[in-house]
Amino acid sequence: MTRKVEAWGKSGAAAERALVLAMTDRATMSGTDLSSSTRLAALGDYWLRTEVDASKRSTNTRQRYRYVVETFIVPGVGGLTVREATVAAMDRYLKRVTDETGAATAKLCKSVLSGMMALAVRHNAAPANPLRDVSRIESADNEVRALSFDEVRALREMLRVDQKAAAVDLPALVDVMLATGARIGEVLALRWDDVDLEAGTVAITGTVVRVKGEGLTRQDTTKGRKVRRLQLPKFAVSLLLDRSVNGVPGGPWNVLFPSATGGLREVTTVERQWRTFREKHSGWGWVSPHTFRKTVGTMIERDRGLADAATQLGHTSEKITQRHYVEVPDLAPDFREVLGRFAD
């Protein structure tokens, strides 16, 4: 199989240099020919081919890692050898990425570089993984904001009476997101085979992704890789029952929310349709489709606790739920009776 060698840079000249570097190193790299003199451009290519492409990682993850290697690592530090990839060198590079593109990108670069250098260590090309000792990449935590029950009711009513929103099926989409807490890509990937109306459940079995060279497709494995079956509230069961009788055909994918042509709907298309609706109604500028997932996490955490919220959202760690999906209330619980005892 022939694979194209690609590389990017901030300018045409930088991209050309990165491409030449990648092609040169790949030509000299074969088998397990790793040494302390191997350049990171070659190490990155070898890591992608042997560790990433051959793994069970999701298509999205494989594409993301390849993008990081080709867009950031090869142009940034691809010319360094494994020997030159010291803690200090990696630390300087990651701080530069943080300054130029943000902490999120820097963390991705750190993760990829750590995987690359771990491979070098396993091949005795490096004595230790320098990424273990670089400085912590700090990022400002965005405050989690969820909708209140009153806001949800108001928003659902606005969606119901908005003809353009109804024409693109936004009311039903939002209801299913609120009923499940699923990601928008997971909701768009729901098939009728995943729904059990008699039991009132739905299985989250996949997500919609765009794959380079293939286009829009349905990926059977979700982000957490574990199929989870969720129990639906009555309003969602009624909605899906009505759609099963009166809704549009699911097309070749047999999905609940097909596109206008009967195929899969793209996440970015729904996000654009949501922005169009949002711009017509003041006061909702902060609400995105992902807000509904945070709202579900917040409401379940308040009523049933953090563990149940994490289970509903499909998180492997409660810390993820707590940090990114649960709103911290402005008003503390009412402890006046307890604290009043100090003056008794």
UniProtKB/TrEMBL annotation:
Gene3D superfamilies the UniProt entry points to: 1.10.150.130, Intergrase catalytic core
Span of domain Tyr recombinase: 142-340
Database matches in Pfam families: Phage_integrase
Single GO BP term: DNA recombination
Family matches, as SUPFAM superfamilies: DNA breaking-rejoining enzymes (SSF56349)
Source species, domain of life: Bacteria
A molecular function (GO) term: DNA binding
Protein keywords: DNA recombination, DNA-binding
UniProt family annotation: Belongs to the 'phage' integrase family.
The name this protein goes by in its record: Site-specific integrase
Organism: Oerskovia douganii
